[in-house]
Amino acid sequence: MNNLARSGMVICALLTASLHATSSFAAVVIHGARVIYPAEQQEVVVRLENKGERPALVQLWLDDGDKRATPATAQAPFTAMPPILRIEPKKQQAPRLRYTGEPLPTDRESLFWLNVLEVQPSAADAKDRNLLELSFRSRLRVFFRPQGLPYPKGAAAPRLSWKLVPHEGGHALEVVNPTPYHISLGSVELVGKGRGERYPKAPNKEVNDSLLLPSGDIKRFPLPALRTLPSGALKVEFSAISDLGARVSHSADIPS
């Protein structure tokens, strides 16, 4: 049994509870909205900060998209160093992620997930009170970016291809991502150029549902408020999330 699997057994029993626990009481904060891993780098650093009043015990592991994977079962060509760490109150730690070299596509990004599991330590007087101690897990996207892609990430969102299509008795916006990048959308709305009518996409069924477009992906966004097609030219207004987590606004004409 390797060290990571062995260390995973230390906290694994708490993972089931963490999948359903709200993070509103978590003390450990991850700096950054995502991790970009350029292929030419040997490792990247993730910054964690304990904003709580007690020390925090944190476990790190990566997976390929399986939310229920544990440190012992997760599949990803990365290691986190150290896999378990202690962060003192009001202090920061900078664990490292290292690519282990398994073959990955060289013509497009690959997506993995970093799990940050925080285990709440028991209070000093816990034995004298009825307390429920929980653990909290956060998942952060890790984009592995090959060298030699034809243009930078910032030039990807304007290359999305949009059109209006029939959908379940109404209409939807269909988008194609022809770029080598994953593109995360923040908002999508159809707009009439003439009178300025606005038709937002349907609400997400889940958090961030359908808003991530992998390379080559095709998705449809239903427009529940669009009953009949408006006259005149149409455009789509959307925002894309940058590498730094900022929303960048874009627009594109809809072909008639």
From TrEMBL:
Signal peptide: 1-26
Pfam family of the protein (one): PapD_N
Domain of life: Bacteria
Domain Pili assembly chaperone N-terminal, chain residue ranges per copy: 28-149
Coiled coil: none
Keywords assigned by UniProt, alphabetized: Chaperone, Periplasm, Signal
Subcellular location: Periplasm
Domain Pili assembly chaperone C-terminal: 175-248
Major subcellular location class: periplasm
One Gene Ontology term from the biological process aspect of the record: cell wall organization
GO CC entries: outer membrane-bounded periplasmic space
SUPFAM superfamilies linked to this entry: PapD-like, Periplasmic chaperone C-domain
Protein family membership: Belongs to the periplasmic pilus chaperone family.
Name of the protein described by the UniProt record: Chaperone protein fimC
Taxonomic source organism: Pseudomonas batumici
